[in-house]
Write a structure and sequence with these properties.
globular, Deoxyribonuclease I, Chain A, DNA-binding
DNA sequence: ATGCCTAGCTCCGCTAGA
C-alpha cells in the first residue's frame, strides 16, 4: 500500500494536430479530458510569436514551441516546467531542423519531440533528406545522451516500422512511409537503445494505426498506418504500464488526420 | 450518394501532407 502511494502515474501523449490554429479547441478539449503530464505536438504550423499561450497556461501547462512560417512546428506542453531544453540539431545549418526537433528535460527525464520529414516522393532529394534526418537523429542521441538513463523519443516519425503497422503491406510496399530504406533507417535509430512502447505492450495486435487519410473513408474502414510513436530507453521501459492509440479525437468534427499516441508510466514520486 | 481531403498562403488556385 505504501509503495502504491509513493508511485505516481505519468502520462505522456504525442499528437500531430495538422495546424494548431485549426485545432486549438480540440487540443484544449483533449487536455481537459485526458490531463496528460506532457503533450508533444507536431505540425503546429505557427510562428513562435503566434502560439496561443494563454488558454494553455490557463489549463496549467508550460509551453515550449519550435515553429516557423507555414509548415512544420513542434511543441512540448507540460504540467511541470522544463529544467532544460534545446531545439534542432545543435551546431548544424539545417534550417528545417529547428522547426522539427525539440528536446526538454521534464521531471528529470529527457523528452525528445520530433516531426520527421514526410519525404515524398520516394527517391527525391526530399526523400534523401528524410533518411539523413533519421541518421542525424541517431548521431545526436549518441553525442548527447545515454541509453542507460530514462529518455523518451516521441512524435510523428512518418514511418510505419513493420508490415503489421499498415493496413495493406503488399499494396503499400515501396510507398512513402513504408519504404524499405525508411524502415531500415528507423532500425538504426532504434539500435541506439530505444524500445517501441506500443509494441512492448501489444506485440502482436494488428490494426493499431495513428494516421488515416482524409479521403476514401479511410478512418471508418481503419485503412491507416502507424506513423506516430513513443520510444523509450530500457530504464524507462521498466516503468511503462501501458501504451495505446487514443482514436477518439480522430472521430471528432474537423479532425486532424492523426490520433494521439499515449504512454503511461509508474514513476517514483 | 446530400457529401467533397485539408491545411497555409496569397489569392480566387497552388503546394504539401502521407
Amino acid at each position: 500500500m505504501l509503495l502504491e502511494e509513493e508511485a505516481m502515474d505519468w502520462k505522456v501523449s504525442t499528437w500531430n494536430v495538422n495546424s494548431l490554429k485549426a485545432r486549438q479547441e480540440q487540443v484544449l478539449k483533449y487536455l481537459e479530458l485526458r490531463k496528460p503530464a506532457v503533450l508533444a505536438l507536431q505540425e503546429t504550423k505557427l510562428r513562435d510569436e503566434a502560439f496561443p499561450q494563454l488558454p494553455f497556461q490557463t489549463l496549467g501547462y508550460h509551453i515550449l514551441h519550435a515553429g516557423g512560417p507555414g509548415r512544420n512546428g513542434v511543441a512540448i506542453l507540460s504540467q511541470e516546467p522544463a529544467e532544460e531544453w534545446l531545439r534542432g540539431f545543435p551546431g548544424q545549418e539545417d534550417p528545417q531542423a529547428p522547426e522539427r526537433l525539440l528536446a526538454a528535460k521534464i521531471h528529470g527525464i529527457w523528452i525528445l519531440a520530433v516531426y520527421i520529414p514526410n519525404g515524398s516522393p520516394v527517391g527525391s532529394d526530399y526523400f534523401l533528406y528524410k533518411l539523413e534526418f533519421i541518421y542525424r537523429l541517431r548521431e545526436f542521441l549518441e553525442a548527447r545522451f545515454s541509453p542507460e538513463v530514462p529518455l523518451l523519443l516521441c512524435g510523428d516519425f512518418n514511418v510505419a516500422p513493420e508490415p503489421i503497422d499498415v493496413f495493406d503491406p503488399e499494396l503499400l510496399a515501396g510507398h512513402i512511409c513504408f519504404h524499405e530504406r525508411e524502415r531500415s533507417a528507423l532500425k538504426v535509430l532504434a539500435d541506439w537503445g530505444l524500445y517501441d512502447a506500443l509494441r512492448a505492450k501489444h506485440p502482436e495486435t494488428p490494426g493499431l494505426f495513428s494516421w488515416w487519410d482524409y479521403q476514401f473513408g479511410a478512418f471508418k474502414a481503419n485503412r491507416g498506418m502507424r506513423l506516430d510513436h513513443i520510444w523509450v530507453t530500457k530504464p524507462l521501459l521498466n516503468h511503462l504500464r501501458d501504451c495505446y492509440i487514443d482514436r477518439e479525437p480522430r472521430g471528432w468534427k474537423r479532425p486532424s488526420d492523426h490520433a494521439p499516441v499515449v504512454a503511461v508510466f509508474e514513476l517514483p514520486d
